[in-house]
Write a structure and sequence with these properties.
Elements lengths: L2 H35 L4 H35 L11
Helix pairs in contact: 1-2
């Protein structure tokens, strides 16, 4: 696989993680919106906690992927001494 294909593959992974995080944020916001129109109960709290956990996990994955990608790209350009492990 050539460098451009690898770059595209890494970008797709990063893009997918960012889209998943955005979706979880939207879910949490929708659950918080229920405060304005109805009672805020245990179900909404559980959903927000689940979104929070999911967002935290995906943020860690995104950070690792970005760090790997930047190291890989710097190495491709001859700027990096070592390549970090693939996340």
């Amino acid at each position: 696989m050539n460098a451009w294909n690898l770059a595209a593959q890494h970008f797709r992974t990063i893009k997918t993680l960012a889209e998943q995080i955005r979706s979880e944020l939207k879910n949490a916001q929708q659950n918080l919106s229920s405060i304005r129109v109805s009672d805020f109960g245990a179900g909404e709290i559980a959903a927000i906690e689940a979104s929070n956990l999911s967002i935290g996990t995906m943020r860690a994955q995104l950070d690792a992927e970005l760090q790997y990608y930047m190291g890989w790209y710097d190495g491709l350009l001859g700027r990096g001494a070592t390549q970090p492990p693939n996340p």
